[in-house]
Each structure stands twice: as structure tokens, then as C-alpha cells.
Write a structure and sequence with these properties.
Elements: H1 8-14, H2 18-24, E1 53-63, E2 71-81, E3 88-91, E4 96-102, E5 105-106, E6 108-111, E7 115-119, E8 129-138, E9 143-144, E10 155-160, E11 166-169, E12 189-198, E13 202-204, E14 208-213, E15 218-229, E16 237-239, E17 242-247, E18 253-258, H3 263-269, H4 273-284, E19 294-296, E20 304-305, E21 311-313, H5 322-334, E22 341-343, H6 350-367, H7 373-381, H8 402-419, H9 421-434, E23 438-440, H10 442-453, H11 458-465
Parallel strand pairs: 1-12, 19-21, 22-23
Antiparallel strand pairs: 1-2, 2-8, 3-7, 4-5, 4-8, 6-7, 9-10, 10-11, 11-16, 12-15, 13-16, 14-15, 17-18, 20-21
Helix pairs in contact: 4-5, 5-6, 6-8, 8-9, 8-11, 9-10
Bound molecules: tryptophan and zinc ion (ZN).
Tryptophan is lined by residues 4, 6, 154, 156, 169, 171, 303-306, 330-331, 353, 400.
Length: 478
């Protein structure tokens, strides 16, 4: 559980040995490719995702009442075939399917625990856009994060509390617990999420929203995520909440959703959000989405997640201390690194977590004149090296570990010291612009760095990313 702790110092003191051994080798079972293989060839989750079509849009409409655990839902998926498809796969677990159509005609269906095989009445031609509509119901259940080897693994997906509140945190493969889809960040899509709930409960989700009255005593909260989003970043939080509307000084709208009884302290905890958005916009490039916000859970879940435009925080992640502020900065930075620029393979997760962790340090360095980033990075480097294993291709159990968070951040700092501030910050801005709303790999990052630095840093990256020995930090030029 505590491996979710986000701030460098907390993480390093809490990371257990359990995951490190198996993650250090970065080995993973190899997978044979057959013509029916559903995956986009991601060796970490070979059952997840499909490479033969490309989802453009998800429309998820669901009805929920706090006094009952079940939902009724319809998900409509608009996708384009990349080859002729006699059948195709969708990731989906647990719920009962009432009806499935492709282009309005009933389709054949078979399923396993995690996967649907859909057989349209007529094969779909390569290049054709097709619409799959799935009506379903049941009680969604969270699943254990398959990479979490601890005794108390993080649960991902749709989670309902005893008092009938709901929150969804899905990284990496929990989206399938509440809607069918192509559950891999390589296939991003826009979303409409419509949730019909009784009066008195709010729904926080991704993008921008308008609550509209539905049947008597109920509201439909319609959220629109107009920029592409990875499935693990789609969320709903359903609970009595009080909204705070504000904006950054530069004009980015902020709408936060807080539990009524934590409202005042939450307002204080997030008072710096606007200044953070504006500062990060100057160093990372413009904030990529139409709005930002935080939703605070009453639950002490021990982590936070960078759900697109609406980060989710367990109430225990907050407070007035430095760690809490660092967590706020971390999730915000993910909006650029992870959400707008997304990974193509899970093995490249250090591109998300290394940048988000380094952003905490950049924020502290910006606001605190006494903060010495070189000293703090040196302290991080001096931490327990057994945990600072290779950040690139860290193994499923190493995805959210000191290797990707802390050594990822150290790698970026070492790069900055090697190429200098001007080129480093140019690189960051070109990176977020070039791959905005898209996907990128570690190889893409190295290629862009070489181009901007005007030197071949392949060897530098190899030592920092692919070996279990932590290189020394270059001598400070800052
Ligand atoms: N990406 C999250 C962060 O660093 C951590 C995380 C990974 C997570 N998997 C999760 C949080 C599942 C909640 C649920 O900010
Ligand atoms: Zn993170």
C-alpha cells in the first residue's frame, strides 16, 4: 500500500524489499505472437488492449443510486479498424451484458474473465469506422493491482464504500471493471461520461461538465473530455461533495470537489494549485487541458492519482506539510507528463513518474529560497541504492517504485546538469509540445534529447536507465 506514497523522502523510507528483487532484472515472460493475439504487444499486460483497431471516442452512460451497489450502463465505442476484422477484443470484467450491437446489428459474443470477443454480423473492412454499443448491468468490483506483491495490494477500478460513495482509480488496468474498452494507454480517445444519480450527490469526472435535471429527484452529470485520454485516467467520484470554483491568475479554470466536512481544510490544502499551474505552464509549456481540479475522498487510501483534469487524493495525502504540497505538485505535473504526453508501453513509466517526481523538486526550488535542489538531489542519490534499480523496463512489480519515481527524477536532474539549463528546459517544452495528446517512448525521448543537446547521449541514458548501478550525479553547474 505505502509504495503509493509519492514524495521522494516518504517513498524511500517506506519501499519494502518485496518488489525490488523481482523488478530489478526487468525480465518478463515473453509472449508468442499469434494472429489472434489481442494485445498491442505490451509484454507487461499481454491480455490488455488491442492493436488492430483504434478507439476515437467512448460514450459511457450509467445510472447509480447510493443505496444499491449495482449500476446499469451503456457504453458506446466509436473505433476505426486497422485491418479487416472478422472479430475483435475488448477488455471487460465482471458485469453482465444485456445487449451488444456493432453498427446497430446484434453481434456475437464470447467472453473470458477479462476479455470480450465480439463477432460483428459482417466483417469490418480495414479503415472503416464502426460503432459498438454494449448495454450491461451488475455490481462492479475492484481488482488487485497485478503488479503489487504486497500483502495488502492496491485495489484498482470501481470501488464502492460501505456508505454508498464511489471512486474509480484504475492505473494500470482497472478501467475494465466499469466499462468495456481498449484498456491500454497506447489507444487514447475522447470521452463523454454521463452519470445519473439522485439529488444530493455530486459526480466528479474528467473534463468539463453540466449537471442537468433528469427524472424527478435525479440529475445527470454530463462530463466531456474533449482531449484524448488513456482509459486508466477515466474516473468518476460519486458522493456528497461541495464544489469550489476558482481560477489560476493566468486564467486556467479550477473546480475542486471536496467532502463537505473536509471543505475548509481542503480549500487551504489546494490554495497553491493556481500558482503551481501557472509556474508549470512557464517551464513545461501551456497547461494542456480546459480546466483542472482536485477531488478529495473521505477515505484514507494512501495514494493519489493523476486522473485527467481531475486528480484524486485520499484524505490522508493532504495536510499543510511539505509532503502534502509535493503530492499536489506531483499529480498536477502528471497532467503534462502521463496524461497529455502518454506512454506507449508500460515499460516506459519512468517518463511519467520521473517527471512528476522531479516537478515536486522544481516547485520547491521555485517557492522556497532556502531550497537547494542540488543538495536535495544528492540526498536522494545517497538513499538506499538497493531500491534505485533501473527505471526503464522495471518489471511489472517495479512500475510504481523508487526506481521509476526517484531514479527517474535523478536521471532528469543528471541530464540537466549534463546539458545545462537552457537546453534542458527547451527539451522539456519541445517534448510536451511535440507529443501533446499523443504517445511517446523512451527512444523518442533520447532521440529528441540528442537533437536538442547536439550531442549523442545514448551512453548517458543507458547508464542511468538500463543498469542497476546508480551513476554518480555530474558535478553541479547550477
Ligand atoms: N500514478 C500514481 C501517482 O504516482 C500512483 C498510482 C499507480 C496509483 N497506480 C495507482 C494511485 C492506482 C491510485 C491507484 O501519482
Ligand atoms: Zn506519479
Amino acid at each position: 500500500m505505502v509504495r503509493r506514497a509519492l514524495t521522494g523522502l516518504v517513498l524511500i523510507s517506506l519501499v519494502g524489499c518485496a518488489g525490488s528483487g523481482s523488478s530489478s532484472g526487468g525480465s518478463h515472460p515473453s509472449r508468442s505472437t499469434t494472429t489472434t493475439a489481442p494485445g498491442p504487444s505490451d509484454p507487461y499486460y499481454s491480455e490488455a488492449g488491442a492493436g488492430v483497431y483504434d478507439v476515437g471516442h467512448y460514450d459511457i452512460g450509467l445510472r447509480y443510486s447510493p443505496d444499491q451497489p449495482a449500476i446499469t450502463a451503456t457504453t458506446t465505442i466509436t473505433a476505426t479498424a486497422k485491418r479487416n476484422l472478422a472479430e475483435f477484443h475488448l477488455d471487460f470484467s465482471g458485469l453482465t451484458i444485456d445487449q451488444i450491437t456493432v453498427d446497430a446489428a446484434a453481434a456475437g459474443l464470447s467472453r473470458t474473465r477479462t476479455d470480450l470477443t465480439v463477432r460483428p454480423r459482417r466483417a469490418i473492412a480495414s479503415g472503416a469506422t464502426f460503432v459498438t454499443k454494449i448495454r450491461y448491468h451488475g455490481v462492479p468490483r475492484a481488482i488487485a493491482d497485478p503488479g503489487d506483491a504486497s500483502d495488502d495490494p492496491t485495489r484498482i477500478g470501481w470501488t464502492r464504500t460501505r456508505d454508498g460513495r464511489v471512486y474509480v482509480v484504475s492505473e494500470p488496468i482497472g478501467a475494465r471493471t466499469w466499462f468495456p474498452g481498449n484498456d491500454h494507454p497506447a489507444d487514447k480517445a475522447t470521452f463523454d461520461i454521463r452519470v445519473d444519480v439522485p439529488d444530493g450527490v455530486s459526480v466528479a469526472s474528467n473534463g468539463t461538465f453540466a449537471p442537468t435535471p433528469g427524472s424527478p429527484g435525479r440529475y445527470t452529470w454530463h462530463w466531456t473530455m474533449a482531449q484524448p485520454m488513456a482509459t486508466y485516467l477515466a474516473t468518476v467520484v460519486i458522493a456528497p461533495m461541495r464544489e469550489e470554483q476558482t481560477a489560476s491568475a493566468a486564467g486556467v479554470p479550477i473546480r475542486n470537489f471536496f467532502p463537505p466536512r473536509l471543505y475548509d481544510e481542503s480549500v487551504t490544502d489546494f490554495a497553491t494549485t493556481g500558482a503551481m499551474i501557472d509556474y508549470f505552464s512557464t517551464i513545461f509549456g501551456p497547461y494542456p487541458f480546459d480546466a483542472y481540479g482536485a477531488v478529495v475522498l473521505r477515505d484514507e487510501i494512501g495514494y493519489a492519482l493523476e486522473t485527467q483534469t481531475m486528480s484524486i487524493f485520499g484524505s490522508d495525502m493532504l495536510g499543510t506539510d511539505q509532503d502534502a504540497e509535493d503530492t499536489v505538485a506531483h499529480e498536477l505535473a502528471h497532467q503534462w507528463f502521463g496524461d497529455s504526453v502518454s506512454i506507449r508501453r508500460w515499460a516506459d513509466i519512468w517518463l511519467n513518474e520521473g517527471f512528476a517526481t522531479y516537478a515536486q523538486y522544481l516547485w520547491d526550488d521555485h517557492v522556497d529560497p532556502a531550497f537547494d535542489i542540488n543538495l536535495e538531489m544528492a540526498k536522494l542519490r545517497a538513499g538506499d541504492e538497493r531500491h534505485l534499480t533501473r527505471p526503464h523496463n522495471p518489471g511489472v512489480e517495479g512500475l510504481f517504485s523508487a526506481a521509476t519515481y526517484e531514479r527517474g527524477a535523478l536521471t532528469l536532474h543528471a541530464l540537466r546538469l549534463t546539458i545545462g539549463d537552457a537546453k534542458f528546459f527547451e527539451l522539456v517544452k519541445v517534448w510536451t509540445a511535440k507529443y501533446r495528446y499523443a504517445n511517446a517512448t523512451t527512444a523518442d525521448f533520447i532521440a529528441l534529447t540528442n537533437e536538442i543537446a547536439g550531442q549523442d547521449l545514448t551512453d548517458f541514458f543507458h547508464r542511468w536507465l538500463d543498469t542497476n548501478q546508480v551513476p554518480p550525479l555530474p558535478k553541479s553547474l547550477l
